[in-house]
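Researcher: Go.
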Amino acid sequence: MDKLDNAIVLARVLDKFADGVQPLGEPHGLLTISTDPAHIIAVLQFLKTDEQLRFNYLTDITAVHYPNQELAFAVVYHLHNLFQNLRIRIKVFVRADNPIVPTATTVWKGANWMERETFDFYGIQFEGHPDLRRILNVEDMDVFPMRKEYPLEDPNRVDKKDFYFGR
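Model: Structure:
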């Protein structure tokens, strides 16, 4: 089997999904593509099971909050081809008022806890998830702490006042 590289992976994915996938670049050599919630499971399944690509290891699922954009959240998947040591990043952008993405537990059972963590910190709803509930924060918490809608520090803290530091 030929040595895989980003150009081969991108060509194969674009050939399969045409307009359903867009290349975003290769920061630090890591091929990054985007798709939408309607295509994400098919893209993940293809990357995992294609005989040439074989991205068989789900490294991580997380999210990024872009509060000033219309598509305010990006759900980010990192996959690894362990046979040829090649990685890929897939981003799915969703609106803040409806952050819903299908669950990847249908492709990888290990996505379960990663999706729960992403839900816990960002509020992303993973449709079809078998047990979507908080995993690290308390159950009755009504906020999602990694969203960029909260101040970085409590303005009422007295230990951060300038006069304590001679200013």
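Model: The first strand starts at residue 21 and ends at 25.
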